[in-house]
Amino acid sequence: MPFLPHHPLGHSGVEVTELGFGGGPLGGLYTAVARDTAAAALAAAWDGGIRYFDTSPHYGIGQSERWSGDLLRHKPRAEYTLSTKVGRILVPQEADGGMDEAFQVPATHRRVWDFSRDGIVRSVEDSLSRIGVDRIDVLFLHDAEQHFEAALRSGYPALADLRAQGMVGAIGAGMYDPVLLTRLVRETDADVLMLAGHYTLLTQDALDDLFPACAERGVSVLAASVFNSGVLATPRPADGATFDYLPAPPDVLRRAGRIADVCEAHGVTLPQAAMAFPLLHPVVAGIVVGMRSESEVRANLAAFGAGIPTGLWSDLRTEGLIDDRAVPAQR
Fold first, then answer.
1. Which residues contact 74 (CB under 8 A, 6 or more apart)?
2. Is 59 one of the catalytic residues?
3. pLDDT at 331
């Protein structure tokens, strides 16, 4: 079986493989996914050595959790790391033939924001039931940008209590905003953050304040959306590519094209470089890549395993295409 390096999350003792399986697409993100397609993707990830699986109630109003559980509940519990998220309670409703507003699934439930202690406990209990396991290894406050004070003052203490009781192993937040995440790091004893889209080949603003705070406090980072939702996912950015879930602006497409030029000169593809880049920084414990099919899993595993010449990073710096502070990690 292929071996993927493992790294600990903060001081928690929980470890993740450097490449994690992101469960968003299993919820029907952008397009619907069949259950057997999801099962094949999860099985390929397991066979490829991935042992970190991330999901959320938000992804397909519970579908991602249920389908992740189809695999994980049959695997030895000590052999994998599972994370899910809190902040939204799923309330049943009549679908009446309608589809969910965010994912391609029937609208059988509605989401209710809730970062209260009771809401978090209920969310965890619901997730355990959907997944069909006895514990969650990593628990994140999810998408709390517009509810940050409630998440910080009420939600985080609830997570800390669950950790103290041994019900979860590591806690933190999964968000897009580096400024708010920096505040969370400085005001709590979180173990790990999931940072989406802000430490990639195209966006490195996390280097300003967030990563120094994480280094000072011993907080690990999991880099998500390493392809910036699509523009870095192909060897050369295509017309109509997306950047942070919107059509990529011309300047972003030009910059991605210049990065692709440098990659090609080193015999490296843009996706290979995009997956390797976040792991150059010592606070980054792993990357999380959303996958929906067996072919996507196999392609990502192959790209992740590609050797990257160190000269690539030097040339990208020289061309002003990545921040000078993005230095190789000493692992």
1. none
2. yes
3. 43
Mean pLDDT over 174-198 rounds to 98
Q: Regarding beta strands 15-17 and 6-8, do their DSSP bridges make them parallel or antiparallel, or are they unpaired?
A: antiparallel
Q: Which of 248, 220, 214, 257 is nearest to 20 (CA)?
A: 220
Active-site pick, 59, 80, 156, 199: 59
* Side-chain half-sphere CA neighbours of 21 within 13 A: 35
pLDDT tens across 221-240, in order? Answer: 999 999 999 999 999 998 88
Tell me the domains of the chain and their CATH numbers.
6-318 (3.20.20.100)
**pTM score > 0.90 for this model?**
yes
Q: Is the dihedral of CA 275, 87, 90, 68 positive or negative?
A: positive
Q: In the structure encoding, which two tokens stand for residue 224, read together?
A: 């998500």
Asked if 273 and 202 count as a contact pair (C-beta separation under 8 A), the reply is no
Contact status, residue 26 vs residue 60, Cβ threshold 8 Å: yes
Q: Alpha helix (H) ranges present in the chain?
A: 35-47, 63-72, 117-131, 148-150, 156-164, 178-187, 210-217, 250-265, 270-276, 294-304, 310-318
Q: Is the pLDDT of residue 330 over 80?
A: no
DSSP-derived 3-state class of residue 40: helix
Burial of 207 (0-12, 13-18, 19+ CB in 10 A): middle
